[in-house]
Design a protein that fits this description.
rod-shaped, two-stranded antiparallel ribbon, binds zinc ion, 5 helices, single chain
């Protein structure tokens, strides 16, 4: 009984973390259900709990890595398109996948070209480079 309670609290904490990271929740839910089902049928609840903890840890780390990569990409893309990188990274931090979708829908559209002065990416239609402030386009 005591073991089950501890396991339940552990599972709850991991679920909260997953929620915070906005992980693919459906997968996590399926996994949790499957694990709970297997635990119910298993005599070795402790061993299974350990395995499940490691699995969840890996899942969280992979999600964290993906989230960081996406945040870096969004920051660069936002900067190149003349938007506030900090604002969008913050949005990505709290909304994760949803933030990415909002960014992809809301970002200024247009071709990305390299600045002639600093070689950083910028929106082709922008007259001033968001990186170096160089006025461009006197053809
Ligand atoms: Zn530039």
């Amino acid at each position: 009984m005591r073991m089950l309670n501890r396991y339940g609290i552990c599972l709850l904490c991991l679920l909260c973390l997953l929620l915070l990271l906005a992980a693919p929740l459906v997968v996590a839910q399926d996994l949790e259900d499957a694990l709970r089902e297997s635990l119910r049928n298993s005599e070795e609840a402790t061993a299974a709990g350990c395995g499940c903890g490691i699995l969840f840890l890996i899942l969280i780390l992979v999600n964290l890595a993906i989230a960081i990569i996406l945040m870096v990409w969004v920051a660069k893309d936002a900067k190149a398109r003349g938007e506030s990188a900090a604002l969008w990274v913050l949005l990505m931090f709290f909304l994760s996948w949803l933030g990415l979708i909002i960014w992809l829908l809301a970002r200024p559209k247009g071709a990305i070209v390299a600045c002639q002065n600093c070689r950083n990416n910028k929106l082709e239609s922008m007259t001033r480079c968001p990186h170096c402030g160089q006025e461009s386009g006197t053809p």
